[in-house]
Amino acid sequence: MITIPCDLCGSEEYSLLFVKEGFRHVRCRECGLVFVNPRLADHTESQMCSGTGAMGDEHLTPSQERRLMREIAALEPYRHLNRILEVGAGRGWFLASAVRAGWDTWALEINSQALERLAALNLGRVITDPAEDFSCEPECVDVVRIWDVIEHLASPLRAVSNIHRALRWGGLLTLATTNFASLSRWVNGPEWVYLNGSDHIVLFEPATISRLLARVGFTAISIRTRSFNLRRKLYHPERELAARSRLLLPIRKLVDEAIGLTPYGHQMIVTAVKKKWDN
Predict the structure, then answer these.
(1) How many structural domains comprise the chain?
(2) Between 206 and 56, whose confidence is greater?
(3) What is the pTM of this model?
(4) Is residue 57 a part of any domain in this protein?
């Protein structure tokens, strides 16, 4: 285990929130970032052979395929160089859909199982560097997608800085991550399903993800949240836990539909733009 400063602001002052399965979850007293501290010294190496890098559906349903194609269609206004980079491409479903839409695709991935899957799909360029060490020609991609990945990274700040450098001016970053400020987390407490200290080591809220993106140089930051669930889980060994509050079960679907109108959904969907040069 290693003790680290806050990745966002560098402070070494933090407050303990709780301990789950031996992992201390703390909040930075300066900027509010929530992270695991101390964390596993070999965290990045372990992500190469384990973790959730290759998780996902073995096959997509027609509705899932349509959702991906809608997401890709929404990226058309940003198609200038005709290149998309996905950080943490996993099973490759998004990039495979992008190929069908005519995009040149790049994948950034370190998980060995995911890399086997990507090779079988015969996609475009596959880069095996950690996101924190990734480098390429500046301003060489139109869109970067980083979906349910940033919470796994040893240094989101370094990774997002590299992404910003790779994007062309006016290019788009699209990002999804769990929301530590969600109603789901508040109801479930430390047993919330997304709290896994060996895997999810940085936990963002709307305020801290905005602060990270603005620090790197992104503008037009937009955040929406979605979904509510009552899942609770331990990971060592894996064990599903009963819902903490059954009072919400009868109205769960109603809450799930309504929560998208608030900042308290369990997943944040974030978009941001690399600001164009001023004329």
Answers:
(1) 1
(2) 206
(3) 0.90
(4) no
